[in-house]
Hints:
Elements: E1 8-9, H1 11-18, H2 22-31, E2 37-39, E3 42-46, H3 47-56, H4 62-69, H5 78-85, E4 87-91, H6 96-104, H7 115-128, E5 132-134, E6 137-138, E7 157-164, E8 174-178, H8 185-198, H9 202-209, H10 217-226
Parallel strand pairs: 4-7, 6-8
Antiparallel strand pairs: 1-3, 2-3, 5-6, 7-8
Amino acid sequence: MTDKAGMYLSQKEVARLLGLPEVTVQRWIHQGKIPTKTLGKKTVLKKSEILNWAKAHDLDIKQNQSAQANNPQSLFSLTSAVEKGGIYVQIDAHDTYSAFENSLSQFSFLENEDKKLILNELINREELASTGIGNGIAIPHTRSRLHLNLDSAHIPVIFLKEPIPFNAVDKNPVSVLFMIFTTNVKEHLKMLAKLSYILQQNKILQLLADRNRDGNLIEQIKVVENEPH
């Protein structure tokens, strides 16, 4: 039973929350791997600390999963992620750094976050290998997990004012960015897989080449995402 109006959790409740055997939670407690507190002579687990710890270690939270199950359209929905991220046009840039910096300045969903840190992480990822996938498209994302205040994936789509060099796989300059921000590794991999699929579809590539002139990009992503394949 939770203590102090749900502030603390028992080992059994933590195990249920994480979908793990209770003995695993016990082992983590003994090994000091999971945050605990001592009240008198009793070891307790504070709910807020457990939730933050689980998120930092990309562990699924079952109570959040049940909420998503009631709304299956929101579970790893690329359409929803793009809607939340937004579409931005005529973004000034002359190189990768300025493209990221000027794009980040537009994102209201990150207004309370450290955008300099995010920018550095995006650049760190590019230094490993370009995220330019060809056809004038790049899918920038951070190398490290950032603990952003997001409830689910956000994928802003950025149309640059002019194409820029990007060291893409096909050596062509890039003019469209799909920038990925997710809440855990599983969601990140799902978004990457879905993007990889839709960005091979001619109907999507044509909309991107036309710079979403008719404003149908999100609707077409929804159509392609829901097609059987």
